[in-house]
Write a structure and sequence with these properties.
This protein has about 375 residues and is α/β, with parallel strands linked by helices. Helix content is about 35%, strand content about 20%. It has eleven helices and 15 strands. It is globular.
Length: about 375
């Protein structure tokens, strides 16, 4: 189930970390011990290369879970707001995979901040000490779920029916799209057949919609029910009520997906413009246990004073309308708010890793 691929990807991270830690500064012949290191340490400041300067902008990394163009444009909007508030300079990028994002954070320990999911955070924390600062809140929920999607007319009705079926998932580094699903498979004796790495949550939905896979796995966020109705709660049916399915369609400007007065917030909504009938064609089979939301984390040696400035500015930005055009957009990561987070909250993800057989002590072997 692609486990070997995950080991190989993250094995590269371990190797890179070992190489970086083994590197030493080459001293000129006859130079006093420590002189080269002292010169190197002083060089950035002397050259005006302080972290956050134009010459040395802070790296803001985003995992490629949705369209990269959406991430870059929204991320740059955030970067401009942070620059205005702090005077610091930022550069936005979307590495090619979840593992590449972790690799970059470990390779740049003093100047990187990353919007990474729970799995990425746990691996990065273990590998090089990346530290969590905030977690996402989506419509009041600091947690989310993985969902298993199947064609609405499929004869797949139970988890057992997934045996031998073709599985589309976003990326082997995705918490909700991959990791959280493995314990479900193990507990239910499920062995999927062929697999398809779809390149993101939207891609996994698309694969099910287009018949390229028998089932797909993505993130689930509860539907937003009409005002006056009791909010969705764990244990409720995850999908839209049957009598509303035929009404599902994007709103007039295409910015949201509604079924009657119910708003769809799971990964299907990201395919609404390309496939307005996505809910009519794709249904939710099952959910995983709760997963703590994705994080904003800092590289291990990020300067504490700069981090404090950025955290304060980010909280202020989250309370502006511009937030909804950036990471708060449902086409981006859909963070409706942010909240402080602690490392201990992600112990549940560590347990998922253990339950899946992906013991972090085995990485790189």
């Amino acid at each position: 189930m692609r486990r070997l691929r995950m080991f190989q990807l993250l094995g590269l991270i371990v190797v890179l970390a070992m190489v970086l830690s083994a590197c030493t500064t080459v001293q000129p012949a006859g130079a006093p011990a420590g002189e080269a290191a002292a010169t190197e340490a002083a060089a950035p400041e002397a050259a005006g290369d302080a972290i956050g300067s134009e010459a040395h902008p802070i790296k803001v990394l985003f995992v490629p879970s949705v369209d990269a163009n959406v991430i870059v444009s929204g991320g740059e909007l955030m970067a401009e707001a942070l620059k205005e508030a702090t005077g610091l300079n930022f550069t936005v990028s979307v590495p090619t995979s979840y593992a590449a994002t972790i690799e970059e954070m470990c390779a740049s320990p003093t100047d990187t901040m990353g919007f990474i999911p729970g799995l990425g955070y746990v691996f990065a924390n273990q590998l090089c000490g990346v530290d969590v600062a905030f977690k996402a809140v989506r419509f009041g929920w600091p947690v989310y779920w993985a969902q298993i999607l199947v064609p609405r007319d499929s004869d797949i009705q139970t988890l057992a029916d997934l045996n031998g079926k073709k599985w589309a998932y976003p990326d082997a580094g995705s918490t909700s799209g991959y990791l959280a699903i493995l314990p479900l498979f193990a507990d239910n004796g499920i062995e999927p057949g062929e697999t398809l790495e779809a390149g993101g949550h939207t891609g996994a939905v698309r694969a099910v919609y287009n018949g390229e896979a028998d089932f797909g796995t993505t993130f689930f966020s509860p539907p937003l029910k009409p005002e006056g109705e009791a909010a969705w709660a764990p244990g409720d049916e995850p999908d839209i009520p049957a009598d509303l399915i035929e009404s599902c369609a994007p709103n007039e400007d295409g910015s949201r997906l509604f079924c009657g007065d119910w708003r769809v917030l799971d990964a299907r909504a990201n395919l609404r413009e390309e496939a307005p009938d996505v809910v009519q064609k794709v249904r939710i089979l099952a959910l995983s246990p709760e997963i703590p939301n994705d994080t904003l984390s800092f590289s291990p040696d990020f300067p504490a004073d700069l981090r404090a400035q950025i955290e304060e500015a980010l909280v202020a930005f989250s309370q502006t309308e511009a937030w909804n055009e950036s990471i708060g957009s449902q086409d981006f990561y859909g963070w409706t708010a942010i909240d402080t987070a602690s490392d201990a909250e992600y112990d549940v993800v560590r347990k998922m890793i253990e339950a899946s057989g992906m013991d972090i002590a085995d990485l790189g072997q």
